[in-house]
Amino acid sequence: VFHGRILARRLVGRETRYEVAVEARYRQRFPLVAREYLWVPSTCGCPALLEGGEYVLMARRHVNHEHTLNRVLLPPDGYARPWTPREARLVREAARHC
Questions:
Q1: How far apart are CA 17 and CA 4, in angstroms?
Q2: Among residues 36, 61, 40, which one has the least CA distance to residue 49?
Q3: Which among 17, 23, 27, 39 is placed 20 to 30 Å from 52, CA to CA?
Q4: pLDDT for residue 69
Q5: Strand order across the 70-73 sheet
Q6: Average pLDDT of each block of 10 consecutive residues along the chain (98 residues)?
Q7: Residues in a beta bridge with 70
Q8: Which domains does the chain carry?
Q9: What 3-state class would DSSP assign to 12?
Q10: Are 26 and 87 in contact (CB under 8 A)?
Q11: pLDDT confidence of residue 29
Q12: What number of other Cβ atoms are within 10 A of residue 16's Cβ?
């Protein structure tokens, strides 16, 4: 779970790739760097992430069977909410209990 700012959006084949500036990490099961590519396995625009927008994102690490692909994946039904101080506080409090 992290707070990210969307820098760019690009359609790549049947997927959408977002370039994200990682602003804060709330729950870290895998390492994140300051800038990450966030992949959504569709081109429909779901969830709708706008360039320049800030979001609280719950993503997962996707590694393929051959271990040649390692990326941050946000499923179409994944958690992506506009970032607000209230949302950040709720996520921070939940991370302490998990």
A1: 14
A2: 40
A3: 27
A4: 66
A5: 60-63, 70-73, 35-40, 15-25, 2-12, 54-58, 79-82
A6: 93 94 82 90 86 91 70 85 85 72
A7: 63
A8: 2-96 (2.40.50.120)
A9: strand
A10: no
A11: 72
A12: 22
- 31: which 2 tokens? 């390492």
Looking at residue 25, what is its pLDDT? Answer: 85
In the numeric block, which tokens belong to residue 66?
């051959």
pLDDT value, residue 10: 94
Q: What one-letter code names the amino acid at 16? A: T
The pLDDT value given to residue 42: 87
Q: Hey, what are 98's tokens?
A: 């998990």
Beta-strand pair 79-82/70-73: unpaired
Q: Which helix (H) or strand (E) holds 81?
A: strand 79-82
* Nearest residue to 84 (alpha-carbon basis) of 64, 52, 55, 41: 55
Euclidean distance between CA atoms 14 and 5, whole angstroms: 23
Backbone angles phi, psi at 91, to 5 degrees: -70, -40
Amino acid 9: pLDDT: 95
